[in-house]
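User: Hey, quick favor. My workstation is busy. Could you predict this chain's structure for me?
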Amino acid sequence: MSIGEPTHRMTPHSAHDQTRLLVQTAARVCEEKKGEDTRILALDPIDSGLADFFLITSARNNRQTVAIADEIELTLKRQFGMYANSVEGRRQGEWILLDYVDFVIHVFLAERRAFYDIERLRKSARSLTPAELDAELTAALAAKTRAARAHAPVEKTPAKKAPAKKAARTTPKPAAKKAAKKAVAPRKAAAKKAPAKKAAVKKPAAKKAPAKHKSS
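Assistant: No problem, here it is.
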């Protein structure tokens, strides 16, 4: 069975959620080390005494029980700096108990687990699989995130002002330049007038034919 891999970056706010995260990590180790029928018992507060959870898993032989217990201790120490308050049964390897005060881990040989039947003795406890605990923890963290966002002050983003239109640039012309241009204008106009027509050249009068003399 595959379960989500927890990390210490999740940083739950409450001690109870922190305990559940530790139990979840230990359950993941049990799965990785081929522990069988791994269960978490969420104990009734009235009936639980000091502990909130029991983590129970089974192994096929003594060597496997010791390997599971050792790996749980090492992982919790490396990731969370957590040390077991007490460890019992390591030498025999039939039932190893790791007491972390808020939760207790039981690593059994399969036949010893059936003999002691802790699940039956804790009838008021709620039994969970590692995957179910993982889903509950994820949901709890999501709910806290939503609540934190709901209570966070909303920052108002100021509306962007439309950029002011640039006024058309009007370069005032000096009065002197205007006057000079007015004076030059008529001159240019006069210069552009068509040239005067040349005076008509008078054609010379036709020469009269000499009068004929009368014959006598």
